[in-house]
Here is the input.
Amino acid sequence: MKTVLIVDDNLKNLDLFKDFVESWGYMTITAQQGKDAICFAEQYLPDIILLDVMLPGMSGYEVCRELKENPKTQHIPVVMITVLNDIADRIHGYKIGADQFLVKPVDYNELHAILGSLFGKKSMYDEMESRWTVIESLNILLKQILPPESVIMADRKFHYCRKLCDYLNLSKNETEQGLLLVRIQDIIATLCKQKGSTPEEEMDFLEPLKMEKWAKYLLLYIRNYLSGVDENLQRKIRECHLEKLAGISFVLDRYGSILVSENGDDNKALLKLRQESSQYAYPDDVVRLLEQIVNDELFMKSLKYK
Here is the structure.
């Protein structure tokens, strides 16, 4: 049964909301404090949250922000309920992740319609795979089709990608895009090796996917960097806000290739990458940061075995 978390410090309002929502066939959980709302949302993972803006201590806006920043609760629709009908307040609410607004006194026919609409959208979302789940599935797939030594190299590149995204303050979305691209590159490289095909030919499997556009732009950017990326592709990279990710992806791809040619020797690979970077003008901030990350890990490893 669908569940609604109702948050209001006014017990009379809380009971009224509860009676209406349950009369429509939904289960309810109630809270009168912001901190309790966050706790209940994490514990019960309701389908929708009705959240009063004016709460004691922690405001509804603060609660909404925390819910939307928490990976466990960020996809739960939040309907904010307020006595304020000011456009600035609504804009603020939407910016922190609110999905809908209702103004008191509440029209319960409107609330009923909003709940029906949000339940439908939530059901569609629940049936979708998260990007991180796809990444984990590709990790399992690659470990089944690659030889052990190739798995080690692929995992190192994946690890460095995560570190670079973190150090360069990329968003959660951008980081997941970067990690997904690393795995897609490994799959394409494996297919090319097995079939004797080109990377362009093996990109076709992306066409039915929504990610095809941004992934293909980045793959083409990496492929054409040394020979020169044309202005049309550069424009598409900018339009999709992929500039940082493009630099990270190219440097990682090049470093991975050098690492293989140097039999996994990071010191030799870093030296060669630095030489190439000077010659071909690789993104300097990414190269320096990757060098720092690798050297730090080599140092820690040396201490471990002393």
Residues 3-126 form a domain with the Rossmann fold fold (CATH 3.40.50.2300). The chain has 14 helices and five strands.
